[in-house]
Amino acid sequence: MALPAPERKQYKLGKYDIVAQPLYGSTHMLRYTVMLNGKRIGALMSVPNESDCRFMENPPPVPPLRIFALTNRPGRPKKGTSPVRSEEL
């Protein structure tokens, strides 16, 4: 006996339209697609709240990546190596 497939559901959360549709290959999970004025702004696997929708609409700024050479701090030097001399300008 097969389980009935969940149906597609649609509801409104503030100014956002939420479409809950079954996830492909899963019996119980739903994909919640968030839309604003007919335009898709994101999707979640958990039930979104209004705060989640606001972050998808206007995400916070992401700081730029730091250069690896400046962030790489090697550990202790191995035995038998000569000490590193720092040259000052």
Structure write-up:
Helices cover 13% and strands 28% of the residues. By secondary structure, the protein is an alpha+beta fold. A four-stranded antiparallel sheet has the order 1-2-3-4, with helices on one face. It has helices at residues 50-57, 68-71, and strands at 9-13, 16-22, 30-36, 39-44. The chain has a domain at 9-59. The model has no long low-confidence stretch (mean pLDDT 84). The radius of gyration is 25 Å and the shape is elongated.
Give me the number of helical elements.
Answer: 2
N-to-C SSE string, H for helix and E for strand = EEEEHH
Cα-to-Cα separation, first versus last residue: 80 Å
Helix content: 10-25%
Portion of residues in beta strands equals 25-35%
Overall, the morphology is elongated
What is the count of β-strands?
Answer: 4
Sheet having the most strands:
4 strands, antiparallel
The secondary structure category is: alpha+beta
**Subunit organisation of the chains:** single chain
Low-confidence stretches: none
Q: How many whole angstroms does the radius of gyration measure?
A: 25 Å
What order do the strands of the largest sheet run in, or round the barrel if closed?
1-2-3-4
Mean pLDDT: 84
